[in-house]
Amino acid sequence: MKVYLVGGAVRDKLLGRPILERDYVVVGATIRDMLKLGYQQVGKDFPVFLHPDSKDEHALARTERKQGQGYTGFICDFAPTITLEDDLIRRDLTVNAIAQDDQGNLIDPYHGKVDLDKKILRHVSDAFSEDPLRILRVARFAARYHYLGFTIADETMTLMSNMVQAGELKTLTKERVWMEIEKSLKDGAIHIFANVLKDLDALPFVTPWQTKWDQNTASILSDQLKRLDPINDTYLRSAFSLWQYQADLSEYNLEQVHKIPKIYADSLRDLQANLPLLQSSDWQADTVMTILNQLDAWRRPERLSVFISTARVIDDNCAAKTIELNKAYKAASNVKAQEVIELGAKGPAIKAEMDKLKLKRIEAILTI
């Protein structure tokens, strides 16, 4: 029985990037062997185990044979006679098909280290075409490592294009597509992810509502993303909204049909509904009040926070107005019911009088 570190941990170590998780492949063992050693089995489709101490994932070396369409329907063989090379050849990219033994030696039968040095993302074998999810994964890796100068090999682009034309992406579930989108959002280069899919004519399968994507749009988004605060907890919603806010969503149900989480869809709709008001030349207290009411900022200030974080990076005009919007909200939110009650307001009139007072506070901010 031999254990090898594989995949992303080896790749990122060679690139000098932080290692977020460690995955291992085990050669020459059976399920019974692993259980006797105290490993906890967690895999359903094939044997994956958690190390008894580190809890790192250890998978038995395996081969896969395609049965049916899509990214499921694989028949796995995990006999102890399967070699490390047999296991590595089923992986997507050569840079992900490098292993390391317990002495630190690299096992690299498919020349992933060479491709890492050349900054090329290249498929390992033609078995790549059996899993359409790999199209999105490659687009995601291209985005993640774009800052290092990585590009996709021509032959891999051709293979992926053929897969798209064959309709393979139609077999992916919307939930799985969203998972790849969200991972690219976290990597901070969703525009590169979209560019790759655009070049493959794959965007209609991933974001069918987005019909205006081009290099100019990508360049603008790139600049906007750089101005977002990546530490802020609104970053992912802001990045998604900036990517999609010019799309026509009138015929699309993002949550029910396309499985976009509601928190993302709501942030996008908030931006689309309120950005025209923010950009309006008619910037008055009534305009500001409308934005605050539409965002339900009085009860849900986090919606306003996400809107401001997103809109402020669109252009200098929006940046200036979001500063005023935030100041106006702070001033207006200080209005309390007791203030108007003491002036004689009762029942339904209380809210009306509070709104009037809020408007006066907003007007005062805008005239400073």
Automatic annotation (TrEMBL):
Residues 149-208 form the tRNA nucleotidyltransferase/poly(A) polymerase RNA and SrmB- binding domain. It comes from the Bacteria. Its cofactor is Mg(2+). GO terms for biological process: RNA repair; tRNA 3'-terminal CCA addition. Keywords: ATP-binding, Magnesium, Metal-binding, Nucleotide-binding, Nucleotidyltransferase, RNA repair, RNA-binding, Transferase, tRNA processing. Signal peptide: none annotated. InterPro entries: CCA_bact (IPR012006), NT_sf (IPR043519), PolA_pol_head_dom (IPR002646), PolyA_RNA-bd (IPR032828), tRNA_CCA-adding_enzyme (IPR050124). GO terms for molecular function: ATP binding; CCA tRNA nucleotidyltransferase activity; metal ion binding; RNA binding. It holds the Pfam family PolyA_pol. The keyword Membrane does not apply. Residues 3-122 form the Poly A polymerase head domain. Belongs to the tRNA nucleotidyltransferase/poly(A) polymerase family. This is tRNA nucleotidyltransferase/poly(A) polymerase.
